[in-house]
Amino acid sequence: MTVLLTTPSSLFGNWPDILVNDHDPLIHPALTEPRSKEAWRRYVLQCDPVVPARLLRQQYERLSIVDLDQYNRARHQHHSKLVIVETDELVEFRNNLMEVIGLNMNAQAGARSGLVVSGPAGVGKSTTLKTVLRSYELFLRAEHPEYFARVGDDFVPVAYLLMPHKVFPKAMLAKLIEYYGLPHRSSHDTVTLRRLAVQLVERCGTQVLVIDDLHFLNVNGNDGADANNLMKEILNETGVTVVAAGIDLDHSKLFPATAKPTSVQRQNGSRFALQRLAPAPCKTKADKQAWVSTIAAFESSLCLLDHEQGTLPGLYEYLHHRTGGMMAGLSQLIRKGAHQAIRTGRECIDEAMLKDVRVDITNEARVEAARKSTRNPAKPSRGQVA
């Protein structure tokens, strides 16, 4: 069953009094990655932009020029917002993460486990992570407000660390310390940085440490062992649940993917559970029902004058062909279609219009390759049955 997530409350509970409404409409917190505890807090607490009223065409045509402009700008802003859909994968990930967090709370040193979120680019790893952990922190704020009112060190239940390209373990520790806002010297060695990082995680009561884009971590040579030891020490010394996310991590040098894993891979394989995220399939009846339901959830968020609900689910095969089952591609295609529908005055989305909407290079190249292979099918080689 797929449900549109209009608020975080559908994951853990209801907390309308916690969210902050005085956000700058030009700087929505979801537009930038949270690189500090303050940025993460803004992301968690900010309300989404207000959904414009869905007007009838007669009402729309009676608007003044000023009101018409304001209404269209509000709709553009609404459609630019990322729509989060609660797929089966999201529910499974939430359940797995909550199980790991619960098990780690009172686990002895050496017995704590982590979670690896692996999948291709564009499948929704970062979005899924931030959505679930935002909801988890809102749950904590509603159930235990005293945690966030304590005097002294901030309570920081979630630390979100985004890896830059080719980062080394020492630089990763520095970024974690910077996330908490603690100044440090560039001359500090890895041992000192690790000690500071562990102290911060403990003092701030951090329960979940997210290491996103872990595939950028340099694991060649000794750094592979250093990275492994770093994650082992953080798990053992702090009690935090480490969640590592990245592209095809289950085939990286950090985790076992072969019949003869290295000692580093065996160690991490015994500590981390694997959560694979993959493009939505569209082969079986159940696959198609889930895909149609996902499209319907996206469609229900549209604010267009003449769009008929049910149009996009009827195009499920075409939409799967255009996006390859990628949530990022589907979201981009529908949201761009909505912007174009308003700009051109068509006020609806159909297949003819979507053919003119360009999405990311990867999906466009895949569609073009499929089109060419259909037009010019490969000839069978000699001796091969056609």
Can you walk through the features of this model?
By secondary structure, the protein is α/β, with parallel strands linked by helices. It folds into two domains: 88-276, Rossmann fold; 280-373, Orthogonal Bundle (Helicase, Ruva Protein, domain 3). It contains 15 helices and seven strands. Strand 5, helix 9 and strand 6 form a beta-alpha-beta unit. Helix 12 (316-323) packs across helix 13 (327-344). The protein is globular. The protein starts with a strand and ends in an 11-residue tail after the last helix. Residues 1-10, 13-29 and 378-386 have low confidence and may be disordered.
Task: Summarize the model shown.
By secondary structure, the protein is of the alpha/beta class. It is built from 15 helices and seven strands. It has two domains: 88-276, P-loop containing nucleotide triphosphate hydrolases (Rossmann fold); 280-373, Helicase, Ruva Protein, domain 3.
